[in-house]
Input
Amino acid sequence: MNQVTALAKRILRRESTLNEHIKISESENRPDQVDPNAQPPEPGLPPHENMRWIPGGTFLMGSNQHYPEEGPTHHVTVDGFWMDLYTVTNADFQRFVEATDYVTVAERPLNPQDYPGALPELLVPGSAVFQKPPHRVDLRNPGNWWAYIPGANWQNPEGPKSSLKGRMKHPVVHIAYEDAEAYAAWAGKSLPTEAQWEFAARGGLEGAVYAWGNDFAPDGTLMANTWQGEFPWQNLLSDGYERTAPVGSFPPNGYGLYEMSGNVWEWTTDWYADHHPGEAHKACCIPVNPRGAALEQSFDPAQPEVRIPRKVLKGGSFLCAPNYCLRYRPAARIPETIDTSTCHIGLRCVINVVRQVLD
Ligand SMILES: [Ca+2]
Ligand SMILES: [Ca+2]
Output
């Protein structure tokens, strides 16, 4: 998927927008600036509806049992924060667009002069959409199930002939990183760091495989919208959903958060590196509120000519299946170029509380 979408975006890239965006992101990655007049909100009184206080603490981040990018496990401390119970829905995003006339990356017109040599059919606004092949395909080529569809965007998730009819409570998709940031800023919120996201997803369970424990389907109950069957050609639909599910369709985790696993991938603010930092050997040195890798580390080593940085996505999606991508787990993580949008990427927001600086 990343290769295909990155390839499409290599042709469709707008460097100026991107550079501007990187500057913004870098400034946001500075340590929290303390506003002496700001008061921490009272836990128990959410600053917005449908948010939950996540208590913070020290936890074991990552996994040594699954994909290499999830290791090594290491302790991390995060401060308490507020988090959305649900991923942002189409109804939420529609309110944002109606209030601001915001145009997402996938909807913006393209100037052919900016893309010499690009195929004309790719020089139209669009986004990456999953297309189920009719038979087993070579899993090494994501082009076997991803297509760049002109006219696909958040309002037309499968292309111009599709709509949001009946899907207002589904998660918004086809959201590039700057779209996610723009929504969060409008809502008076932020995007989570990877550590915040993973702490929240674990729901208070230390080191569990899934957000609900170590058993994928406790008592036979499917706990998330994932893919059952052999990806990408056979979807058994045991969970009832071929694509996205309305938010709140599956049981919440220990912190009361819904769909932290599956349904749609969620953007975090961290630049991606292909492994975590190692464990701190002294309690004094456990990272507090870590913010991920350096921007320079996030470029794709497989495509050195592409200078589009990549953020960490968390949580897996309705396209995650054990035979291809067993990533509906709190520790799982994938890189995504910041200008990429797809039918399985959305967002959820947090509100950070000013940290008391004692040292
Ligand atoms: Ca499903
Ligand atoms: Ca999710």
Summary: The domain at 1-359 is CATH 3.90.1580.10 (paralog of FGE (formylglycine-generating enzyme)). The two ends are 45 Å apart (CA to CA).
